[in-house]
Design a protein that fits this description.
The chain has 2 helices and 4 strands, in the order ββββαα. The protein is α+β, with helices and mostly antiparallel strands.
Amino acid sequence: MQAAACAFHAQREALGVCVACRSRVCAECTTKVEGINYCVRCLAQRARSEAEPDTARRVSSSPARSAASAIVWAVVLWLVLWGLLQIALPEAA
């Protein structure tokens, strides 16, 4: 029975499997991150994705969103002031 070869070095025996792409890799081509094997290619891709800003968490600063926010704050402020006026100057019954 022949040992499995590394996906990047055909002459070397594979010692692990990359969890991302399932490639068999030798000791030189594998890196453990938090106990999980990654090949050189997938580790580089993971590093690039972690370095890029996450657009899903970034807050949009579009003019429409800013205008809507300003309107909401104006309504809240008006309601608070109206409530304070009702407390300070109650109408005579």
